Backbone:
């Protein structure tokens, strides 16, 4: 009896191991609420992975603490390939926060970058400025009176704004929100006057004339955001900021599962209609050549992000 029970248990375990991956629904976790670039790219990735892998892919928003809640959740998830994280470079949070409940280097395995893009420097329509030179002049003439709607500590809009402050020699009063959507609503309501926003959050409002875009945060204009100048042309040479989002899984996830996720994501991002969807949101599809290549890119960029956070003065207050 005992031997038979053990044999049955072994057979069930062997059958589970033999099951092809994936054999059940996947979950992609993102540390921001609906309405911003992180959420948009997560839902796009989920849709493409679902098509390519043949299983349901569920999106779970876990906003808060500059994406630390989501990062910690995935770091502690089973490393079986069924829980995926969509996030930016985690060196940002390590540089911003005194302590983390996860290790960005040891707790995650890279899968692929999804997309890259600049933020947009936007102002409320009632603010009497029309380019970066006028915004800087207004900020200097009205110290403490420009309120910046931030998408949360460590988010791309937060870092884009503090780098802008550092280069321009000005200071905004920052108001932190749990994502780009709530931050943009604050700008529309006039509760804040300035917003460094990811394109998916504001492009509809810009096209409708409800928000004024002064520039993109990259030095040069972006082909994906026509009609809006780069920072150099708009009046602030030396200002250059872009961000990205990419997929990660818990460390120890089987290499075969990581490779399958990467191949599915790369195939989805190669589709012209998917690239067009990303471009319409002001970003560029930038899949990594391989998981190893993505990890190498992360390692190369780590000193840049650490230096940016340190020299810009960005910190969690």
Residues:
């Amino acid at each position: 009896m005992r031997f038979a029970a053990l044999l049955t248990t072994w057979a069930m375990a062997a059958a589970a191991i033999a099951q092809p991956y994936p054999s059940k629904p996947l979950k992609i976790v993102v540390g921001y609420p609906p309405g911003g670039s992180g959420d948009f790219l997560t839902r796009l990735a989920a849709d493409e992975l679902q098509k390519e892998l043949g299983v349901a892919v569920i999106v779970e928003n876990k906003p808060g603490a500059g994406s630390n809640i989501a990062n910690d959740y995935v770091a502690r998830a089973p490393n079986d390939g069924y829980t995926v994280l969509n996030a930016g470079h985690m060196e940002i949070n390590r540089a911003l926060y005194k302590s983390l409940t996860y290790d960005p280097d040891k707790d995650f395995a890279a899968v692929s970058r999804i997309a890259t893009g600049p933020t947009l420097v936007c102002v409320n329509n009632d603010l009497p400025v029309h380019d970066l030179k006028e915004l800087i002049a207004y900020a200097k003439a009205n110290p403490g009176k420009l309120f910046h709607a931030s998408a949360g500590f460590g988010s791309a809009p937060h870092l884009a704004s503090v780098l802008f402050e550092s280069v321009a020699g000005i200071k905004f009063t920052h108001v932190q929100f749990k994502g780009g959507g709530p931050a943009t609503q604050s700008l529309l309501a006039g509760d804040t006057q300035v917003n460094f926003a990811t394109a998916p959050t504001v492009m509809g409002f810009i096209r409708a004339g409800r928000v004024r875009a002064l520039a993109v945060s990259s030095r040069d204009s972006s082909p994906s955001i026509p009609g809006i100048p780069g920072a150099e042309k708009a009046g602030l040479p030396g200002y250059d900021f872009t961000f990205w989002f990419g997929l990660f899984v818990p460390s120890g996830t089987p290499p075969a599962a990581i490779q399958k996720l990467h191949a599915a994501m790369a195939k989805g991002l190669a589709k012209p209609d998917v690239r067009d969807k990303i471009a319409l949101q002001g970003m560029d599809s930038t899949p990594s050549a391989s998981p190893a290549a993505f990890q190498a890119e992360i390692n190369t960029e780590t000193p840049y992000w650490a230096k940016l956070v340190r020299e810009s003065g960005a910190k969690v207050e």
The first strand starts at residue 26 and ends at 30.
